[in-house]
Amino acid sequence: MLEAFNFRVLLDYMPLFGKGLWATVWLSALSLFGALLVGILACGARLSRLGFLSAAAAAYIEAIRSTPLLAQLYFLYFGLPSLGVRLPEHHTGILALSLNSGAYMAEILRAGVLSVSWGQIEAGIAFGLTYLQRMRYIVLPQALGITIPPLLGQAIVLVKDSALLSLISVFELTRAGQILTSERFMPAEGFFTTALLYLMIYYALKTLSSWWQKKLIFVHPA
Q1: Domain of 47: which CATH number?
Q2: Of 35, 37, 25, 87, whose CA–CA distance to 64 is shortest?
Q3: Transmembrane region positions (predicted)?
Q4: Residue 221, in any domain of the structure
Q5: What tens digit of pLDDT does each residue of 15-38 get?
């Protein structure tokens, strides 16, 4: 199969793939930061004792999880301008990925917080710790340790979902493969290289996740 590949042309397009890879990395990094911020806020609102705040967070999470990312992306890209809000393509893509992944991260974080036993919280109350002190010294250290591996798993999903940004003219890794395919009519070379580079990103994140899980087992032996 490899004999059929035109490596000479592929080498000519490697700088383009390098730019696409870098664009995917920084778009995913910014989206991941935004998703974590959205997830923390939504988790806090979901766990709030204020009923309207918890209901609003639950509605947002269910709305995001019950609709496809592509529909959310098209709504932001085509729908917002009709409402008078215009954003550059990159900003629209980062916003869509942040809102989508943030809903899933909110549920991961909520599960981590709820996994902390109520007895430990009661002990904190008995020692006179305030709500913020209980969160800082008891709940969050344990919750974050448990939720890091699934959060990294969600980060991998976010990176793969970033390929959809090529549909709104954002230049990234998949778009680089599309350019090679359309200019030289070489879909095998274009999309095989694209898939290979996504695989490299995936294994880098998977290695990080495995390392953290081993560290977690060491810190919290069964």
Answers
A1: 1.10.3720.10
A2: 35
A3: 20-43, 144-165, 185-205
A4: no
A5: 999 999 999 999 999 999 999 999
> How does pLDDT run across 76-121, given as a tens digit for each residue?
999 998 888 889 999 999 999 999 999 999 999 999 888 888 888 7
Residue where the block lists tokens 């917080």 = 113
Cα 167 to the chain's mean position, in Å? Answer: 18
Q: What domain range is 122 assigned to?
A: 7-216
Q: CB count, 10 Å around CB of 82?
A: 8
Q: Which two tokens stand for residue 33?
A: 């930061």
